[in-house]
Amino acid sequence: MLKTLITKLLCALLALPTLAAAVDLHFTEIAPGVHAFVGEMSGRTYENEGMNANVGFVVTKEGVVVIDSGSSYQVAKKMHEAIRRVTKQPVKYVINTGGQDHRWLGNGYFKEQGATIIAHKKAIDDMTARGVEHLAGLKRDLKERIDGTVVTLPDQSFDQEKTLKLGGTELRIIHYFGGHTPGDSVVWLPQSRVLFSGDLVYVDRMLGVIPVSNTKDWLASFEGLEKLAPKKIVPGHGKVCDLAKAKRDTKDYLALLRSHMKTALDKGLDLQRALDTLDQSRFKSLLNYESLKGGNASRTYLEMETE
Ligand SMILES: [Zn+2]
Fold it and tell me: How far is CA 45 from each of CA 28, 36, 49, 283, rounded to the nearest angstrom?
């Protein structure tokens, strides 16, 4: 009896590190039928399985719509397990809100389940261009946890806007302009006034201006989504928030970068001088501030130099 108990305890203890070291895809219902997962705000790691981003799903009477399929086949499978704990409805659609790895590398799993995958045409171009590179990058961190993942492009594209009506729920997929990536789109639920903003909104952590980003388009996209007057926003990264917070952590920051760089370019300052005279410290409470502020500033300067 005692021996069995000790063996059981030992087994449980041995299993702990492996259990603790994988992503826990815990979804919260933020409005009736609307579920969101908020990922870690650090970088991609073996432990978080590349899920340092937010994803969601919407349950309707006639099926489920997944918003972003996650970073890998295995993550998508775990998402599906989480969905099954909520509903027996099948996953009918997957929407990819952008072209970055954790928005779409789980597509292969959901395609096997018979789901139709939708993304903006520019997101599909972006996936085509960067998919192999994304997989290779994630393989370094995720090791065997990337196994099973293959580049799986969406089945359907759209131009500016596409409306899905499923089981009495309306989902509007809207592309304004690019932003963090060229094909960034939002998913708007007019009935609950919830917005899945994808990577057009970052809160709690500093946004990343990456080589495929465009800050002018990003600000213009933000102005578009603002007009929807969402009650709740599931940002691409950071906790579920309201519009005021999204504006503070994303729009105001982009506006600061752009207004500073405009003045610097008008004065004829070179890149180094433009960087030296920029004070971003009012955003220093955002996570990853130190590691991202330099790249964000220089990419904005280089972008605006050619505008
Ligand atoms: Zn992202």
Answer: 23, 21, 6, 25
Give which of 132, 136, 140 is closest to 46, Cα–Cα: 140
What spacing in Å lies between the alpha carbon of 270 and ligand 1's midpoint?
30
Task: Give pLDDT tens digits for 17-42.
Answer: 455 489 999 999 999 999 999 999 98
In the reported structure, the alpha carbon of residue 99 is separated from the centroid of ligand 1 by a whole-number distance in angstroms of 9
Instruction: Say what the pTM is.
Output: 0.93
Handedness of CA 9, 10, 15, 17 (dihedral sign): positive
pLDDT of residue 12: 58
pLDDT tens figures, 239-249:
999 999 999 99
Q: Dihedrals φ, ψ of 125, to 5°?
A: -60, -40
Contact 96, 154 (CB under 8 A): yes
- Could you give the domains of the chain? 22-244 (3.60.15.10)
